[in-house]
Amino acid sequence: MEDNTDSAVDQAPVPQLRRRLERADLGAVPETRKALRELLRHWGRPGRSEVAELLTSELVTNALVHTDHDAVFTAVVGPRGLRVEVRDFVARRPRVCVANANADANGDAGDGTHGRGLVLVQSLADAWGVRAHGVGKSVWFELDGGIV
After folding, report:
1. Strand intervals (E) in the chain
2. Residue 17 phi, psi (nearest 5)
3. Quick one: which of 25, 47, 33 has its CA closest to 84?
4. In whole angstroms, what is the distance from residue 97 CA to residue 81 CA?
5. Distance between CA atoms of 58 and 113, rounded to whole angstroms?
C-alpha cells in the first residue's frame, strides 16, 4: 500500500512577513523592525537577526524617504536563509554613496549621516541587489543563518 501523505516538514509553511508601508510613514521603520525581530526570534546564530534588522531599517527608510509612494516589505525565511525585499513604485535605481563627513548624498554640507544605507547593505549582506519591475523596483538582501 502506498502512503500519499507528505511529511510534516514538507507541509510546514515558510515563515514570512509581508506589510504595506504607507508613503512617508517613518513610524513604519521601528514597527517593521519589531515584526521582523519576532519572525526571527529563533533564527540563525547570535547577531544575525540584529544584522537583518539593521539592513531592513535601511531599505525601509530609503523607500519611504526617497520616493513619494507606498512600498511593500517582504521577509521570507527559507532553507537557505533570510530574504528581505522592499518594493517601491519608482523606477529610479538607488545609488551606493560613500558618505563624506562634510557633505550629504546631494553634495550639500551637512551632518554626514546620509548615503550610508546601501554601503551597510553591501558590506553586511551575503547578497543584495535591485530588481526592476514594470512599475518600480525591489531592493533586496539575503543573509544565511550562519549555522554550521
Report:
1. 16-21, 71-78, 81-88, 127-132, 137-143
2. -140, 135
3. 33
4. 27
5. 12
Q: List pLDDT tens digits, range 46-55.
A: 999 999 999 9
Q: C-alpha distances in angstroms, 65 versus 12, 17, 45, 47, 79?
A: 37, 22, 32, 27, 32
Q: Is 143 exposed, middle or buried (0-12, 13-18, 19+ CB in 10 A)?
A: buried
Cell matching residue 63: 523607500
DSSP state of 116: -
What is the pLDDT, as a whole number, of residue 73?
A: 98
> For 55-92, how does the pLDDT look when each residue is reduced to its tens digit (9 = 90+)?
999 999 999 999 989 999 999 999 889 999 999 999 88
> Is this prediction's pTM over 0.85?
no
Do the beta carbons of residue 16 and residue 73 sit within 8 Å? no
